[in-house]
Design goal:
The structure is a homodimer.
Chain A lengths: L2 H13 L3 E7 L5 E7 L8 E7 L3 H8 L2 E8 L4 E12 L2 H6 L18 E15 L2 E6 L6
Antiparallel strand pairs in A: 1-2, 1-4, 3-6, 4-5, 5-6, 6-7
């Protein structure tokens, strides 16, 4: 499969996924995985999540930004693993940009709730599993 | 929620899951996650997977057994993270015990295919996400 096709399949998966699995490295040096809402991906390069500032994920990322984000489709047996680095954003612009109606359920004080943070994940490389075959490929900023 | 109830909900999720997400630590020290068949769990304590001996997961585990296994139900918003240690089994007894009809698709030489290995994951602790609340609890061998 050529890189363009791999990228197309990966992008389709990311765009069609309501959820993504974010994995961080815990204080115990084990990988910790959690299902998160896939709120506003920018191609395969940047994936955004909202989370509680008090959450384990935030403390993991502040300690170690090495992370991955996994998308998959159980029916079609497609999986895309993005490997990259995450950081925690708490500025007003990011909070507003990634706010989604209904988030009051999780952040009672709304967009300015101090317990509301945005996680920005930036991918550097990827692995696509499709039709029983695996393909590694780099993720550049320009192939959004 | 008391520990017994947490355990019951976790066990129901594990038993009802065709898939589980196995996360390993890569050579790059990033977490790597992959969807795997959940073939024959023993309570919450031991989770088994079949995999290609030549796979990345096997090389990760041989280097570092620190792993996690994640189960979730997107519809019900339930997630169970098991944190523990994995090892690779290649003995005949394990190969036979965890062989599933149809695995010839992945291991062409059958149960004795050198590219067929079993991953045994043993949980030490867990985190259940249920009804918007999180509960940490230990996983003992006797609360299967």
């Amino acid at each position: 499969m050529d890189e363009k096709e791999v990228f197309r399949i990966g992008l389709e998966l990311v765009k069609g996924s309501r959820f993504a699995l974010l994995s961080t490295i815990g204080d115990d040096e084990h990988p910790w995985t959690k299902m998160m809402f896939n709120i506003a991906p920018e191609g395969l390069k940047k994936i955004y999540f909202s989370t509680n500032t008090s959450s384990r994920r935030v403390s993991h990322i502040l300690r170690n930004g090495r992370t991955s984000v996994y998308f998959f489709d159980q029916e079609r047996f497609v999986g895309l693993l993005l490997i990259g680095t995450a950081r925690v954003l708490q500025n007003e612009e990011s909070r507003k940009r990634f706010w989604v109606d209904g988030f009051e359920r999780y952040y009672r004080l709304g967009v300015n709730d101090p317990d509301y943070s945005v996680i920005e994940f930036v991918a550097s490389k990827a692995n696509l599993y499709y039709s029983l075959s695996k393909t590694d490929f780099p993720v550049h900023g320009d192939n959004l």
